[in-house]
Every structure is written in C-alpha cells, then in structure tokens.
Amino acid sequence: MAVHPVRLFGDPVLRTPTDPVTSFDDRLARTVADLMDTVRHEEGAGLAAPQIGVSTRVFVYTCGGREGHLVNPEWEPIGDEKTHVNEGCLSIPGVSEPTERYARVLARGVDVNGEPVSFEADGILARAVQHETDHLDGILFLQRLTPDRRRSAMAGIRASGWFGSDAISDGVVYERLADAMAVR
Predict the structure, then answer these.
(1) Over the stretch 54-100, which tens digit does the pLDDT of each residue have?
(2) Which residue among 19, 45, 106, 173 has its CA within the 20 to 30 Å range from the CA of 123?
(3) Is there a binding annotation on residue 41?
(4) Is 131 annotated as a binding residue?
C-alpha cells in the first residue's frame, strides 16, 4: 500500500473527533493497510487514522509483541491500577513526558471486515489502545499531562524545528498552543 506523512501538532485534523466507520469496503481496507505501512516505517507503537489525515474511527498497533487494528474501538480499564510512563507521539516528534494511563484495559471493536474483536492488554499495548483512541476523539496526550509536564512539553514543541513557521504570527502560535492544551 503506501506510507503517508504523519500529520504534526497544530494540524486541525488532530483535534477533530472522527466519524464512526459504517462502510467496511476497499477504502477502509486501504486505510488500515496504509496505517500499518506508515507505523512500521515510523517505527511507532500505534497510529490513528487522523494522523495521516483521515477522519475515520480506526487505529493500528504494533507493540507488546502484537500487531493489528481496531475499527470503532472502545476500551475500559481492568482494575484501578495506573502507570506513569514516558509517552510520546509520532505527531509530536521529540517530545516525551510521563503520562498517567490505566495499566490494563479491555479493548473492543471490529476488524476491517466488521467482525467483532476484543482483547485484554497491558504494558505498552494498553497504553497504545488508550493513546490511539484519544486521537480518534481529538485528544492529544499533552492534555493528559500535569501542568508542569505540559509546560515542559510545550517548551519542547516551541523549540523544535518542525513546529510553526515564519508565516505564523506569535499571536496565532499562542492561540494554537492554548487551544491544544484545552481539555475537552
């Protein structure tokens, strides 16, 4: 299939909730294949459709010794245990901060053919399920950070070579940063 450029922080598609999948067709199959090709190319743990510019409720994962995809995913915690592990995002390169997530989850959804899928996950796979589902809801991991960690992450973003451009005024950059930090 194809490797796509990963959309970066500041792109509105990353802050827009996705549409549920209703058609299990060749287009969906291509999206899943493209997501998998792209996440492998980027050596990531997971990738959600908005990260390649597609507003569809699907993500792929390749971590914790498992690979796959979930269409119209949902998850629920298994127990109350949480972890604080450094988390990053392909859409926010070079930024990694301790982020609170549930240690174990039950993930449910369907596959590319509309067949039910469910599995328990812990470790990095549990983290990927939560992170990628957040992407589908228009939420970035930055919104899950403590205020101090968020400031640190934003400083890293502002200092990066990939964020912003000379064409963007300081006011617009500030508004984008403030909007990105608002928790929905």
Answers:
(1) 999 999 999 999 999 999 999 999 999 999 999 999 999 999 999 99
(2) 19
(3) no
(4) yes
CA-nearest of 84, 91, 173 to 132 is 91
Cα 8 from Cα 118, distance rounded (Å): 30
Spatial contact of 67 and 57, defined as CB atoms under 8 Å apart: no
Distance CA 7, CA 11 (A): 7
Q: Which residues are catalytic?
A: 132
Residue ranges in the chain whose pLDDT is less than 70: 1, 165-184
Q: List residues bridging with 60 in a β-sheet.
A: 47, 69
Give the span between the Cα atoms of 135 and 153, in whole angstroms: 18
- 108-120 burial, b at 16+ Cβ within 10 Å, e below that, comes to ebbbbeeeebeee
Instruction: Say how far apart CA 90 and CA 39 lie, in whole Å.
Output: 9
pTM to 2 decimal places = 0.89
Structure tokens at 181: 């930090």
Looking at residue 23, its pLDDT comes to 96
Query: What's the confidence (pLDDT) of residue 183?
Result: 44
> 135 a known binding residue?
yes
Domains, the chain, with CATH or none: 12-181 (3.90.45.10)
Q: Which of 106, 108, 107, 100 is nearest to 81 (CA)?
A: 100
